[in-house]
Amino acid sequence: MIYPVTVYGDQSLRKKAQPIEKNYEGLAEVIENMWETMYNSDGVGLAAPQVGLSIRIFIVDATSGAEEEPELKDFKKVFINPEIISTSGDEWIMNEGCLSLPEIREDVKRPEEVRIKYLDENFEPHEEVFKGFAGRIVQHEYDHLEGVLFVDYLSPLRRRLLKSKLMGIATGKVQPHYRIKIPVKSV
Q1: Phi (first) and psi of residue 184, to 5 degrees
Q2: Residues 139-149 pLDDT 10s
């Protein structure tokens, strides 16, 4: 089932998501639906709050970037109850977009590397370091679990300049090619 993507203005995107247990009801179905939703929306990552679920799960599939970064060849993962341990390296700027902020792309500065521990879809523990594009995606999706959006990293002036676009998203004045859930109350 393809979920509608929750967009800017919905307060669920600003809440800290809650950890889940292995016996979370319908977990396999939720993960499958998230994959289907992400692929339908042409995303490379999707966090549960973006589909209205305030739980600590995000998925990533950056295999499409393997031509430019060969280490992305097998970068398709489920992250459950992730915890960033540290970030390191030089901060670098990259243009980011987000399914919850359709039609907005901005340059965002993030650290080059992230060390994260998480559980996979079988609740097996992992601790890994991701860098480059993989590290950026992990940090972006992790932010969703903390109630943070990439526009929060922009300067106050840049956010002011985007205000009308953001309000347009919050009031349903955008029409991306994927289904979205318009907030009941706008920001």
Answers
A1: -70, -45
A2: 999 999 999 99
What is the number of other CB atoms lying within 10 angstroms of the CB of residue 141?
Answer: 24
Residue 19 contacts residue 56 (beta carbons within 8 Å):
yes
Report whether pLDDT(186) > 50: no
Per-residue pLDDT at 39 exceeds 80:
yes
Give the other-Cβ count within 10 Å of 187's Cβ.
15
Looking at the domain 5-177, which fold is it?
Answer: Peptide Deformylase (3.90.45)
What pLDDT is recorded for position 52? 96
Please check whether residue 166 is in contact with residue 69, taking contact to mean a CB–CB distance below 8 angstroms: no
Is residue 129 within 8 Å of residue 114, measured between CB atoms? yes
Q: Are 15 and 147 in contact (CB under 8 A)?
A: yes
What positions carry a catalytic annotation? 141
* Cβ atoms of 50 and 179 closer than 8 Å: no
pLDDT in tens, 10-30: 999 999 999 999 999 999 999
Which phi and psi (to 5°) does residue 72 adopt?
Answer: -85, 0
Structure tokens at 163: 């205000």
Average confidence (pLDDT) over 134-156 = 97
The structure tokens listed for 61 are 């599939």
d(CA 127, CA 119): 9
